Each structure stands twice: as structure tokens, then as C-alpha cells.
Amino acid sequence: MTAPSQTTQEVMADLGRLIDALGQYRAVAILTGGFVPVMYRKVPRFVEPSTPSLLTTDFDWTIPTPLDVLGGQSLADRLADSRFVTIPSIGTEPPVQRFQHERFGTRTLAPVHAEFLSPLVGSEVDRKGTSKTVVTVQRGLTAQALRYLDLLFVEPLHFDAGTVPELGLAAPATILLPNPATYVAQKLLAWPERDPKKRDKDLAYIHEVAFLTQAVWPELAVVVTDLKARFPAPWFKRVSELTDRLFTSETAEGAIAILRQYEGILSSVPSEKAVRKVMVEFLNAVGLAS
Hints:
Blueprint: H1 8-22, E1 30-32, H2 35-40, E2 58-62, H3 75-81, E3 84-88, E4 97-101, E5 113-119, E6 134-138, E7 141-146, E8 157-160, E9 174-177, H4 180-190, H5 196-212, H6 217-230, H7 233-246, H8 253-260, H9 272-286
Helix pairs in contact: 4-5, 5-8, 5-9, 8-9
């Protein structure tokens, strides 16, 4: 849901401003998080769900480390030139930088803001005991390092955000979306360590992706096979064990958690049976079930 002070149109317009500000960095930054299913709704061959978007107000982008300087200008400078200001996090060193439009000011973090993420590889601390969960990816730019994000760089989708009128882009602007198979795998792998307040919505995002990608499930199965060849086997054992538990029955935790996200939003909420059916069929079809 959007914050009360910001309409859906305003949030989408801010995302459009950010996409425009990224410029050449759109070729390497992958949209991550809750806005991915929103963009999937606009992808040809995908089915649009009957349920509304579970819109968030923060824009996450996964970028490689180190991040090459593109077009002769750092990403932080590009954002500053486009009237985005920096709000550093408290309690980390270096601080995580979050970016928001200057109209929100520079004193506090606004509900509508952007953050950059980067894959965490190996231990969370280096040999000196220093945390590796915040990394400097480029001059003037830090990112939060999270595990499993490296999956998102496999077979990303190239999508013209200029085809989405709500973003207000004046010209074509190709952005990278994670492949639905990698998006779901990363979400499930990260789910056990997620903030409990965010887990239900993450499962609802996965259910939405499962529903709208029905026409391309065989293609996603090919991507999952590729993932299993590239990444550790225990990762996928963990996914299958988790989904077995979450969707073992109509009254299991997963289906109920998904339905909670639609309470008060839909006049007619899908049944637990319908939700579980979509998830079980999807997970089996793409090869993420046991």
C-alpha cells in the first residue's frame, strides 16, 4: 500500500523520475523488490491478475560491485543533477545511502525513496571482523549488500518503461527486470531471514508473479535449470523444503499469509484452495518444488 501522503500516481511519477535519472546505468541496474510485479503486469505475454497491485513506496535497484562509471559521470552525480538528495542511514559504517526527491527535504527519510543493493558474497565480515553488509560500489555511492541477489543477474528481462504512461517518461527507456524465475528464487531464499512484517507481502508478490507468468512457465523452468547448475545445490533444497511447508495444505502458513494481504483491498478474496493451487502448480512447473 502507498503511504497516505502520496497517491499512487505520485509514487509512479517518482519512479519515472528515477528511471530517467539513471540514464546509462539502466543497462546494469536491476529493479528489485515490490515494484517488480507492478512492471510485470505490463510485459507482453504475461497475464494481468484480477487483484490490484500491492504497491510499495520504496524503489530498490540491484547493482554490481564495483560499479563502472558510465557516460563519464558517477551515478550519485546523475541523481543529484536530477534533484535527488541523499539521506544516509544511521548505525552502519559506511552509511547506506537512500535517495529521495528534493521536495521531501533532507532532514528525514520520506516514504518514497530509492536504495541501491548489491550481492553479498561469502561471509558477512572480512578477516578483520569488519562488516561487509554495506559496500562502496562507486565514488560517492554505497549499497546494502544482501545474500542471493546475484541470482537476479541471470537472464534479466529488458523492458521499455516508456510504455507505462503512469511513469511519465517522454521517450523509450529500457530497464532491466529480474527474470521471474530468479525473482521468485531470491525471494524464497531470503524469506526466512526477512522482517516478519514483510514476509506476508513477499509471499503475495510471489503468488502474483506465479499467476501472471502462466504462459511462460516452461521457459522459466529452463532458467531454473540454469540456476541449479550455477549456484549451490543447498540453496534449492532450502527453497523446496520451505515451499513444501508453506503450501502443504490449504490451511498452511503460505496461503493464509497471501490472503491476509488482500483483506480490506478486495471485495471478494480468493479462496485458500485457489491460492495454493496456483502456487503448487507454478512451483512444480518451473522446478522449484521438491
